[in-house]
Design brief:
The structure is a single chain. The protein has 310 residues and is mainly alpha-helical. Helices cover 70% and strands 1% of the residues. It contains 12 helices and 2 strands, in the order αααααβαααααααβ. The chain has a two-stranded antiparallel ribbon with strand order 1-2. Helix 1 runs parallel beside helix 11 and helix 2 packs antiparallel against helix 9. The N and C termini lie far apart (58 Å).
């Protein structure tokens, strides 16, 4: 009696490769968009300084962005946003304090010092993610981080100072660097059960509340004298917040946190380039070399897209 051979098992269907480049590309695009933030702040202080102070500009940026993001949640998900988790609340608090400290630093120390120290926080995100998220970066990241630090230092040299340098302002900038690292780490954790657009909506709600408290503590005017005072915060809400922070938070869901910290360093390159054309501040040879070095670091960092388990 002959046995009928068993039918061959069907070959597994190969799924298309995941678009691993999409997350890093979104973070990079967000870094480019938030490069307009210091430009907008400078215009707001120079042209509308009698309308709103730096902390009030940040507060209205968050307030204007919140209903826009709420509308996007309804449009995309066809439902109300899910409740925020504790990590999103922490991330929003950290971001609002980060921006407040950075704005204060810009009024106490040189722009070059403040920019360089705050950018150290973006690179330090990799160390924080290694310690708390167990995302161990590979050797390309360490090389890219070294290049990013050197490039940020070179780019910041020769910057125009609002005031002469002071230790107090440098300490404010250092505090801002610590808070930006915490912001990215908690945002990464908060994205585990929220979509990107839901996360940035709740972040904006928290940031609006924290910024309102900071404005009152700083003794700044809450409302501008005329409607013109709303122009700069509205533009910052659309470009730097909805577009910039929205892309970063959305991209963080599928991007190594250490890599994201370096990709965001596209911000000072964009800001320096715009300032060159808009405020007639040409880059020195050293600053141009620093900008190029940061771009090389960004290119190296995006090559490591998959977190390594510790």
């Amino acid at each position: 009696m002959t046995q009928t051979p068993l039918a061959a098992a069907p070959a597994p269907v190969s799924l298309p490769p995941a678009r691993s480049w999409l997350g890093p590309l979104m973070v990079l695009g967000g870094g480019v968009a938030i490069g307009f933030a210091p430009i907008g702040l400078r215009i707001g202080i120079q042209e509308f300084g009698n309308e709103l102070g730096p902390q009030a500009i940040a507060m209205w940026r968050y307030i204007f962005a919140t209903p826009i993001l709420f509308g996007l949640v309804l449009l995309i998900h066809r439902r109300l946003p899910r409740p925020p988790n504790k990590f999103i609340i922490l991330a929003g608090t950290f971001f609002a304090i980060d921006i407040a400290l950075w704005h204060w630093a810009l009024t106490m120390t040189s722009v070059s010092n403040a920019t360089f120290i705050v950018n150290l926080g973006n690179v330090g995100v990799g160390v924080v993610a290694w310690l708390f998220l167990k995302e161990r970066p590979g050797m390309p990241w360490f090389f890219a981080a070294s290049l990013a630090i050197a490039g940020a230092a070179a780019l910041s040299l020769g910057g125009t100072a609002l005031h002469t340098g002071g230790l107090k302002g440098d300490l404010f900038a250092l505090g801002a660097a610590c808070f930006v690292a915490g912001y990215m780490m908690f945002s990464k954790l908060g994205r585990r059960n929220l979509s990107g657009i839901e996360a940035i909506f709740w972040l904006s709600v928290v940031e609006s509340v924290v910024a309102f408290i900071i404005v009152n503590l700083a003794g700044e005017r809450v409302l501008p004298v005329t409607a013109n005072g709303f122009i700069v915060p509205l533009v910052l809400a659309l470009v730097a917040h909805v577009m910039g922070q929205g892309l970063i938070i959305s991209g963080l869901g599928s991007t190594n946190t250490a890599v994201a910290g370096i990709l965001v360093l596209a911000q000072p390159v964009v800001a320096a380039t715009i300032a060159w054309r808009l405020f007639d501040e040409p880059l020195t040879v050293l600053q141009a070399a620093g900008a190029a070095t940061i771009l090389v670091a960004v290119w190296l960092a995006q090559r490591e897209r998959t977190p390594r388990p510790a």
